[in-house]
Amino acid sequence: xxxxxxxxxxxxxxxxxxxxxxxxxxxxxxxxxxxxxxxxxxxxxxxxxxxxxxxxxxxxxxxxxxxxxxxxxxxxxxxxxxxxxxxxxxxxxxxxxxxxxxxxxxxxxxxxxxxxxxxxxxxxxxxxxxxxxxxxxxxxxxxxxxxxxxxxxxxxxxxxxxxxxxxxxxxxxxxxxxxxxxxxxxxxxxxxxxxxxxxxxxxxxxxxxxxxxxxxxxxxxxxxxxxxxxxxxxxxxxxxxxxxxxxxxxxxxxxxxxxxxxxxxxxxxxxxxxxxxxxxxxxxxxxxxxxx
Length: 292
Description:
13 helices; 2 domains; 6-stranded mixed beta sheet; about 10% strand; alpha+beta
């Protein structure tokens, strides 16, 4: 029975490899609207999940979100075509989603990040380090920070189980994101990084430089020093280094995460997660690290 199953699996893998090659060569422009399981059931559920979870390299957004923002996702149709072929081959939802990283994204689910010197909250000696790659103008980052982060903070960060680190990843099509990222480091000079972060996420429609300076005033910082820092671009290169960290980790969309065992030198290696996932997804990932 096991031999038969492994033979079938190899056949499916061979089919998938040929499918990927065929899709790339022929350049399909749309997903098959009639794809279905062999017993006739429509695979709408898993295809919709892929539309929400696959991050387009060209946009840093999911297939659905790229469409919503009118941004081209050239590989999206190819991805959905491949998923349709996997469905036709009898793959389960779990196998399809877990295999996407190998056959569709072409990237490792593992990543290394040097977190030394980065803004962090929680116990420095916590067993787990969680890195958030974020864009202060990204609506999905706000969704995560409004709905998931408070519960995660209470359960893991405040209890000493997780050290939480932020890496700025301002996306190029968010015009205020880069300056907002710089402003956080200006606030960090006066120990107000996390306080300003909360204010920026609170109203993403007000992220102009005058708006940010107003938030700094509300926080009671030295506004002259803050303005000099922000206007002078003191941390422009530091934000560029954050962008380099994201590229090195293979994170091209926001929010993105790496969850790993903590190391004294700050150089962690762990699994990646993408998107504003439900709290339970993060809990499971953190618990897996602590269980090792």
